[in-house]
Amino acid sequence: MQYGGVSNVIISGDLNAAGRVYQAGRDASLPEQRQKFHFDFLNHTLKQAEWTFRLSVWFMTGGALIILAGGVLALVHAGNPDLSYLPYVTALTGALITTGGGALALHSKRTMANLTKAAEDNEKKIDIDHKLEVATTFIDRVVDSKQKDDLNTVAAMKALGMDAKPQTMVDRLLPGDQPKEIEPGGSTG
Fold first, then answer.
1. Residue 84: predicted pLDDT
2. C-alpha angle with apex 67: 66 to 69, nearest 5 degrees?
3. How confident is the model at residue 134 (pLDDT cuts 50, 70, 90)?
4. Rg (alpha carbons) of the chain, rounded to whole number
5. Is the pTM of this model over 0.85?
6. For residue 34, which of 131, 117, 127, 122 has the smallest C-alpha distance?
């Protein structure tokens, strides 16, 4: 099976009549483009979930009104044997529409839960990025170039999720003669 290709892809530019265009090149780095795409996708998904919820409310309201109409028809035509099926058909139709509205509401709820999780994940990533930015700002203040390189290496390892034991990092990064902590029960003099 073969699928069609992408058409109307514009690499640079601003908004046009076809919609949003992502600028590539000097203006935005690849991570910035990915972040913009990700947030645009989340925004689109949020709008979709909102409209799905609205549709579910309309369907459930319409279905409930049709069920009520079926009840009214049952009361009005209670003695007429020719129209005895009409209330049942009307009530069944209303029940089916209401069930469809409930399914749309469930879909909207799941989508919102996924969006909430994505927002929490983004918040964690933003915190990590901020901590890395603060760390590199402090590292830039270090005068010794070897120590600065070592600290940048550790920061990069941390950013990539490669963690070492804190004592190992202290032993390898800080100069040899570090002041010793006072041991519990030890003397100060």
1. 73
2. 60
3. confident
4. 32
5. no
6. 122
